[in-house]
Amino acid sequence: MAATVDARGLSCPQPVIMTLDEIKKGQSNEIIILVDTDTSKENVTRAAESQGFTVDKVTSEGEGYRISITRGQA
Amino acid sequence: MLIGLDRADDAGVYRITDEIALIQTVDFFTPIVDDPYWFGQIAAANALSDVYAMGGVPKTAMNLVAFPAKEMDLSVLRQIIQGGIDKIKEAGVVLLGGHSIVDKELKYGLSVTGVIHPDRVLAKKNLRSGDRLVLTKPLGTGIINTAIKAALASPELTDKVTRFMAALNRDAARIMAQFDIGACTDVTGFGLLGHLAEMVCGSGTSVRVESGSVPVITEALEFASMGFVPAGAYNNKTFREYMVSFAENVPRTLQDICFDPQTSGGLLISVSETHALALVQALKAGGIKDAALIGEVLAYPEEKIWVV
Prior knowledge:
The complex is a heterodimer.
Chain A: E1 3-6, H1 14-25, E2 30-35, H2 38-50, E3 53-61, E4 64-71
Parallel strand pairs in A: 1-2
Antiparallel strand pairs in A: 2-4, 3-4
Helix pairs in contact in A: 1-2
Chain B: E1 12-15, E2 21-29, H1 36-53, E3 57-67, H2 74-90, E4 94-102, E5 107-116, E6 132-135, H3 141-149, H4 155-166, H5 170-176, E7 181-186, H6 191-200, E8 206-209, H7 218-225, H8 231-240, E9 244-246, H9 252-258, E10 267-271, H10 273-285, E11 292-298, E12 305-307
Parallel strand pairs in B: 3-4, 8-12, 9-12
Antiparallel strand pairs in B: 1-2, 2-5, 3-5, 6-10, 6-11, 7-10, 8-11
């Protein structure tokens, strides 16, 4: 079961901090992050990749994006 | 009038006599650092920079203040103004007065008046093919300010970036005046490539930027790779990407930094090829240690920016 980080309504750097915190907990190999700006989408992608995660899928959801990331290289 | 609204340059320029032209500019913004005294210094250095970027000498300044008088203690305002005054003094400029209003959001800045010889105005739009490009301050203040907001920057790094932002462009401008300069601007909110794009548009030339030579605050590389890139950088990129091509080997981190909005950034100078090395050496000798040659103006009329 993937962990979910809901960062909608928050502006950067908050979504990145929440993503990094979830990654650092080390309990999830799969995380879903919900954001609602292009900036957050780009920055969460960078945050995930810098920690050895791979962005699997980015889908538009409502006004924002649903980003799913998994630990390790694709 | 030598330079006005139609030219959208760093400051307006108006000829008084054959010997003297007035340079006028105004700039103010909301706090970018927590310390009110340093905020005052940075806001003043930023406002003065537009005069330096035209090749001029600032002479007088007026304070512009918006202050939430109900929510904030007046001592905060005093410290901001003191920061401004100290920076104005350092620049050899006289403060003549100012105006303040009550506002929900704190804002501070200056209107600045300077002088220049009418024949020696350094506009943005005078790139000459063959000129070399020089940048006088390292990039990355926007990214590091984002990391500061996330409480991830060390006190040492916060102090370092604060000092970069508060540094006057006066010495760089004075040194540059001794060389054959084509065009000049200062790097602020549009980032390096955004301001370079303004220089290139309408110039009939293109430019090549050597990304490996661009001075960067080292820590900004790591923070950019972790996703601490301000929204302004993405906006700058979206606005100008039709003009810009990155070579495949330019890492994403460096691309982000090239669009990172700068607060009170350095001067971006185009200098004739024969003077280029001497200018950089003179800048370094004059204490501007980060000054570097970062690229070249090319005789391609397509008005493109190649980053390699």
